[in-house]
Write a structure and sequence with these properties.
Blueprint lengths: L1 H14 L5 H8 L3 H12 L6 E10 L7 E9 L4 E7 L7 H15 L12 E7 L10 E4 L14 E7 L8 H9 L10 H12 L1 H41 L4 H8 L3 H12 L1
Parallel strand pairs: 3-4, 4-6
Antiparallel strand pairs: 1-2, 2-3, 5-6
Helix pairs in contact: 1-7, 6-7, 7-8, 7-9, 8-9
Length: 271
């Protein structure tokens, strides 16, 4: 049974692409050279040097919605990049790009700094489909002065890379092919294929990926059990409320639900 489970895991690993969140996270984690290679193609800059990479970086917002970046990178000029891999068009909404950009701004300027010291930033969405719908391989969005068309120059940039547009005659087209390809032997760029091959074909890489899959499965099971348990406790609380013989405090104690939750359920029963 263990061998059968391992074979299933290995098959899952073989089907992974860099567009898949978990595989992307593993391949880009602390990988300066891979991140730099991808950014150089998107930015069309061979002189770009990445000095910091962090995957799944979380920005806590105590007054609003917190966010987690797929890849947060900084180059040697201090420019910050948020790179997001999105299979779902809904997750690449333009207002999400705006929000991510604002989060970078809020976390990059210290109290003593002037607004002119705000670092230049790029939010880059790499999308499975043509989210903006104009058939372009890449969309570069800049604020402009409407009447003159002159760039506003606030240092904020948003880019959408369209993986539905793959032209092998261009560097960008080859890149999106490799990002959506599961077989390293079919990739154009050695820099990408070698990383993918390590996690799919070497013993060390496969062990790391199998451990990741086990962790993901265990996490999913734990969440499912917790959800089922809460659902059962909620159903129990509703039955007690309908019976009407117990106080809210007693029901909260019997079901281990917060008192506020019991009060909320009571409003449903009355309604």
């Amino acid at each position: 049974m263990a061998d059968e489970e391992q074979q299933k895991n290995l098959q899952i690993i073989q089907n992974f692409r860099l567009m898949d969140d978990d595989f992307m996270n593993v391949c880009f984690s602390d990988n300066l050279s891979l991140t730099e290679f991808v950014l150089r193609i998107i930015m069309e800059r061979n002189d770009l040097h990445v000095v910091h990479v962090e995957t799944q970086k979380t920005f806590i917002n105590f007054l609003g919605r917190s966010v987690r970046f797929d890849i947060d990178a900084i180059d040697d000029a201090g420019v910050e990049y948020d790179i997001e891999f999105q299979q779902s068009s809904a997750n690449a909404d333009p207002r999400r790009a705006r929000y991510h950009s604002s989060v970078m701004d809020c976390n990059s300027l210290k109290k003593s700094q002037f607004f002119k010291d705000l670092r230049e930033s790029y939010v880059i969405f790499i999308t499975e489909r043509d989210v903006l719908g104009e058939g372009e391989p890449i969309y570069v969005i800049e604020r402009t002065i409407v009447k003159s068309g002159r760039l506003f120059g606030d240092g904020e940039h948003i880019i959408y890379v369209n993986c539905a547009h793959s032209d092998a005659a261009t560097e960008l087209g080859k890149l999106v092919h490799d990002l959506t390809c599961s077989n390293p032997d079919e990739m154009y760029f050695m820099q990408i294929a070698e990383v993918v091959r390590y996690f799919k074909e070497t013993e060390e890489g496969r062990e790391e990926m199998c451990k990741l899959l086990d962790d993901l499965i265990n996490e999913a099971v734990t969440e499912a059990v917790a959800e089922t348990t809460e659902n059962n406790r909620t159903a129990f609380a509703l039955n007690l409320l309908r019976r009407g013989t117990d106080t809210f405090d007693e029901i909260a104690e019997l079901t281990a639900l917060p008192l506020a939750k019991v009060q909320e359920l009571a409003a449903q029963v009355v309604g």
